[in-house]
Write a structure and sequence with these properties.
Elements (H helix, E strand, L loop, with lengths): L2 H18 L7 E3 L8 E4 L4 E4 L1 H6 L1 H22 L8 H10 L18 E6 L6 E4 L1 H8 L14 E8 L1
Parallel strand pairs: 1-3
Antiparallel strand pairs: 2-3, 4-5, 4-6
Helix pairs in contact: 1-3, 3-4
Keywords: Hydrolase, Metalloprotease, Protease
Protein name: SprT family zinc-dependent metalloprotease
Pfam families: SprT-like
Length: about 160
């Protein structure tokens, strides 16, 4: 885990402890998050997970806003219990009052769209081409059959793949 991120998590905890005049248990911090989310706070496990790709691409803002955002979830859970709204007034109080940051619910990092392989299936219709996902292609290989809605013929793998 990058040292700067760990340092920022600790700094957020120190600010919260100073503000609330109490100690908070430190979370486990993981860098095992993929996809579109920048970070996730697992409240009952006292665990923070961060996305290493989005961290690398947005380091300064990520350290300032995203880390504080996720730590604020854990602090709110400790202070106010499990019945509060995830981005409710308690969490917003922590974002504004403790961290002096806007209580933004979502990040605006460019997540890009993951390239995916499409498997081309054909029917008897002219221009009857159907791109299948890898999951659907796998189901066909296991024996599942799909039919064209127009000509009702079984769709057959053409042997072609394309990356979209």
């Amino acid at each position: 885990m990058p040292e700067l991120l760990h340092t920022r998590v600790e700094a957020c905890y120190l600010l919260a402890e100073d503000f609330f005049k109490r100690r908070f248990p430190r979370p486990e911090v993981s860098f095992k998050l993929r996809g579109q989310k920048a970070g996730v706070a697992h409240l009952t496990e006292n665990l923070l997970r961060f996305n290493p790709k989005l961290y690398a691409e947005n380091r300064e803002h990520f350290l300032k806003q995203t880390v504080a955002h996720e730590v604020a979830h854990l602090i709110a859970h400790e202070m106010f219990g499990g019945r509060i709204q995830p981005h409710g007034e308690e969490w917003q109080l922590i974002m504004r009052g403790v961290y002096e940051l806007p209580p933004d619910r979502c990040h605006t990092y460019d997540v890009g769209r993951r390239k995916s392989t499409r498997y081309l299936y054909l029917c008897q219709c002219p221009n009857g081409e159907f791109p299948f996902s890898g999951q659907r292609h796998s189901l066909v290989r296991q024996g599942r059959r799909y039919f064209c809605r127009r000509c009702r013929a079984t769709l057959v793998f053409s042997g072609e793949q394309r990356v979209e």
